[in-house]
Amino acid sequence: MYSSFLGIEIGKRGLFAHQRAQNTVSHNVNNANTPGYSRQRVINESIYTRYGAGVQWQVGTGVKVSDVNRIRDDFSDMQFRNENSALGYWHIQRDVLKQVEAVFNEPSDIGISAVFNDFWKSIETLSKDASSQEARETVKESAVTLTTTINHAAKQLSDIQKDINYRISVKVDEINSIAKQIAQINAEIQELEISGVAAPDLRDKRDLLVDELSGYVDLTTYEDENGLFTVNVGGAILVKGNDCATMEFKESTDPDETPKIVWKDYGDAPVNLIRGELKALEDLRDEKVGKYLEDLRTFATTFAEAFNKVHGEGYDLYGEKGQDFFVINEDDNSTEILQVKSDIVNDPSKIAAAKTYTENGGVPGDNRNALALSDLRNEMLKFGDREATVDDFYGALVSKIGVDSREAKRMTESQYFMVSQINERRKSISGVSLDEEMTNMILNQHAYTAAVRTITTIDEMIDTVVNRMGIVGR
Amino acid sequence: MRVTQNMIAESFMRNMYQNLSRLGEKNDQISSQKRISRPSDDPVGAALAMRLRRQLAAMDQYKSNAEDAITWLKDTEAALTNTGDILHRLNDLTIQAANGTLTEEDRQTILHEVQELKDQLLQEANSTHVDRYLFSGYHVDKQPFIKNKTGEIVLNPEIKNPNDVRILGVEGDAITDKNQFIIDEIEGLEPGKYMLEVVSMNDNKLTVKFYRQKTKEEMEEEDTDLWVDPITITDIPYTEDNNTVNINGNLKFGKNTTKYFKLTLQLDNVETQNGTVTFEITPGDMNYHLGRNDLMPVNLQGPEVFEDIFKNVEALEEALKANDSSNLSGDVLKNIKGSLNHVLKYRSQVGARSKRLEMTVNKMESSYVDYTDLLSKTEDLDMAKAATELKMEESVYRAALAIGSRIIQPNLADFLS
Q1: What letter would DSSP give residue B203?
Q2: CB atoms < 10 A from the CB of A243, how many?
Q3: How far is residue A250's CA from residue A172's CA, in Å, rounded to a whole number?
Q4: Does position B214 have pLDDT exceeding 90, yes or no?
């Protein structure tokens, strides 16, 4: 025998459950376009009595919302983060390498290659009339243009490196900030869930932050049975529960060494990265832009040294032995790699085009050293441990930049595609389908209406009992 | 697979982005008219384009070099033609003068004309091309021939350059400083400045002359040659080795030696020093680059061409003054005729060089066109193809937009009343 009002109570419980479901539908629909939102599902459970209450079976007592599920696939999340790291790596490479290509501006009529051509032409013109002041002026002018162009390219590359360092420091700050936020959310989630309250929206927020972080560094995450959430970057713990570590972009005490990204909390151990935007910035600075700058410097100094040597074997219009034509900057860190010697700039008669001299001055028509200088172009010079002509060495440098840039473009495109695919799968699992929600909404509405109906019915039934029973003879 | 509106919209957006990106690229290409705007567009093509540009610049330069050489040779040709004409006249005058029936007056007239013609010859020998002397070798600022006090035409001593020598290497205890060479085992030489002249080189035997430079005191006495007291050394054996000639293991010099350009030695202490010095004697050929390893001399050496001519004309002068008609009809006439042939020889040499230069110009011009074509194929855009592709991308884009607008709109909410 159970309470008369059980029916109403059941109805009421139904109303609550269906309202809750409807609210969830509403929540889903309104968040259909919210980034990182995972759809939520209300899990209904039927309730029943434990004790017979006078009958031999369990008595159903309605429905209750046992849980609000967050529909999310952790495996897809992990895949996404892996590929996103790679995407982050390559798209930064693509962007910066595009800048580098703009620095060199080849093939064109204004890049180093073209200026170099002009310089050789001026030397050839000098070899036709070593006595000509105009020819000498032209040699001087094109030499100055050459050094200016080379130095300018070097400066721009160096500026890109400086810019990269700035971006690294900004990124490190961002990472630290995200890590703090994740730690905070961890604390909130743990608090709520320990007391039995589900926290799907907080988890969504956390996953969104981790997604963002994965673009910057390659990471792995782990959540244990107690809900302790760990983020691992390069083998070291970035976030564990409420605690987070801090990265630092540290200058080295040795001025020749580049600054490094280290763990402040782990005794300045270097941060071990494989992918992600941060690693891309580091690689670009040291292995790409750094190497290009070094090659440019090698190109310029080897050429200048070879040129100076031949120049020193000749004599100028005054009958003096040729001095250095180019001044090579000893400082490896300066971007003013080459200058034309000021004596020559001020007096192009000091260009040593001749191979002989007289006691009273130079031999103006002797063009043999000019010819020798011109022949340098075809000579194999030693660039570090390679032998090549100046043109081939420079061409190889430009080719390398082109190949690196192209690779970055290709990889970015393919990674972009990969990431989109995985994202699609994630959306397929977690995304809100308006059709689905509308359908559920209709179901909920019907169920709600039906529940109301049952209440009305039971109300009528009770009304019968209360108001229409025992009124005979009244 | 469960599909949501969001997924469709994103997929649509992604494809739109790719479409637009391709459209943008095509636009870029068409507006710049270049298929390769940066190395990453086509690294191999970019490298090729750079190499081609370099080739083109080189070819342009060689063509320009050849053209300049042609104008130099034109002036040379003119001088030689005039010289030939003068020699013709001298030839006729010599024949006239050889006729023993001339009066004193006639002879004087002829003598005057010969002297006039000699001065003209001097002018021709001292011809210039713009501001440079044609026949002075490297000393383009100094005239090759001058008239000395006695009316003789001689080689300008300033172009007998004591420093026309380049030290290639030093072994042993030889000391070198500028033009000081110390040489062993040459007898009979006083310390001083010397000049070595290679007189002849054949059958592995060499004849050299050592001239001594006048000391300051001697120079004040007479104003003649700077180089005096020649000592001839004959039968010096030599061996050839590539381009170097080795003498006695003591003297080595480069193969381009001619007898007109000499080297100077400063012998300070002949007995105590020894060693070997390797040096090169300047040939005076002004070479132009006509190709990568292709050098061509554009000038003729004044002494080679004119020295003997002047000697012969002066011999004519002397014979006229002495009224030596047998000499006039004999050696003098023979030598004048010889000079004519000499000039002809050089004229044909100049002609041959000019021909070769014209060929070079033509070759460069046609190669330039070929390489430009190749560069264009590598670097430039095929406009027709690109325009077609652009139209295609545009229509794909439009179609996608149209279809997209249909897919995205409706959902169930629109149909529930």
Answers
A1: T
A2: 14
A3: 11
A4: no
In chain A, which among 433-472 make CB contacts under 8 A with chain B? Answer: 433-436, 438-439, 442
Task: Tell me the per-residue pLDDT of A38-77, one tens digit each, with 9 for 90 and over.
Answer: 999 999 998 887 766 666 777 788 888 888 889 999 999 9
Q: Tell me, what's the pLDDT at B268?
A: 33
Is the complex ipTM higher than 0.90? no
Beta carbons of A284 and A386 less than 8 angstroms apart: no
A366–B contact, CB cutoff 8 A: yes
Kindly state the average pLDDT of the residues A419-423.
Answer: 92
Give the per-residue pLDDT at A53: 61
The runs of H, that is alpha helices, within B271-332 are 302, 308-322, 325-327
Report the mean per-residue pLDDT for chain A: 90
> By the CB < 8 Å criterion, does A428 face chain B?
yes
- Residues of chain A with Cβ-Cβ distance to B165 below 8 Å are 356
Interface probe for B, chosen from A366, A401, A413, A446 (most Cβ of B below 10 Å), is A366
Determine, for residues B139 and A365 on separate chains, whether the beta-carbon distance falls below 8 Å: yes
- Taking the C-alpha atoms of residue B214 and residue B205, their distance in angstroms, rounded to an integer, is 29
- Compute the 3-state secondary structure of chain B and give helix, strand, coil in percent, each to the nearest 5: 55, 20, 25
Task: Examine the pLDDT at B338 and tell me if it is beyond 70.
Answer: yes
Best residue of A76, A123, A356, A439 to probe chain B, by most B CBs closer than 10 Å: A356
Reported in sequence order, the residue ranges of B189-226 that DSSP labels E, i.e. its strands, are 192-202, 205-213
Buried/exposed A437-455: b ≥16 CB within 10 Å, e otherwise: bbebbeebeebbeebeeeb
Residue A361 pLDDT class (50, 70, 90 cuts)? confident
Peptide bond into B303 cis (omega under 30): no
Which of A79, A81, A410, A97 lies closest to A215 in space, CA to CA? A81
Is the Cβ–Cβ distance between A293 and A301 less than 8 Å? Answer: no
Nearest to B288 by CA among B53, B52, B135, B71: B71
Residues 60-119 of A with CB under 8 A from B: 97-98, 101-102, 104, 106-107, 113-114, 117-118
Give CA–CA dist B343/A14, Å, rounded: 127
Phi-psi region of B319 (alpha: psi -120 to 50; beta: other; left: phi over 0): alpha
Share of chain B above pLDDT 70, in %: 70
Q: How many CB atoms lie within 10 A of CB B12?
A: 17
Give the pLDDT confidence score for residue B252 in this predicted structure.
Answer: 46
Chain B interface includes A127 (CB < 8 A): yes
Half-sphere exposure of B272 (CA within 13 A, CB side): 3
Q: Do B412 and A435 touch (CB under 8 A)?
A: yes
Q: What is the mean pLDDT of residues A213-232?
A: 92
- CB–CB of B61 and A107 under 8 A? no
Q: Do residue B53 and residue A354 have CB atoms under 8 angstroms apart?
A: no
The confidence score (pLDDT) of residue B322 equals 85
Please compute the mean of the pLDDT values over residues B125-141 and round it to a whole number.
90
With an 8 Å Cβ cutoff, is A336 touching chain B? no
Distance (Å, rounded) from C-alpha A369 to C-alpha A130?
A: 10
What is the Cα–Cα distance from A2 to A8, expressed in whole angstroms? 12
